[in-house]
Known about the structure:
alpha+beta; single chain; elongated
Amino acid sequence: MKQLNIEVPEGYEIDIVKSDLKAGGIVFKVVETKYPNNWVESEINSNREYAEAALALCQLIRLRDIYNDCIPIDWKDNASKYLIKIDFDKISYSSTECSSRVLAFHDIGQRSLFLKNFRSLIIIAIPLL
């Protein structure tokens, strides 16, 4: 029996259904990227850093709401909003009228106190901010 080695191009695989080895016909198909259908299948679920960041982000969002007296930020008005954001993997802060960010506050005092009290939690959440 002869053995035939076939080098499959990167990003492709042999289409077993459409290939006819007896006739010598080999068909390649593009390898499809498999995206998870649920949280359990996701790779991020098995990555401890991202799991901890997700938990930290949930906690920060709830704490942000408490610091904002549970009054949502109105991104449609022109009032200043005071932000905590991540620039080049570093915590920074600014103000804006229209650029939406997760960690936004109604006044500079709330933002400053939040940053002082929860800097360590923000650092954990950096991969998702």
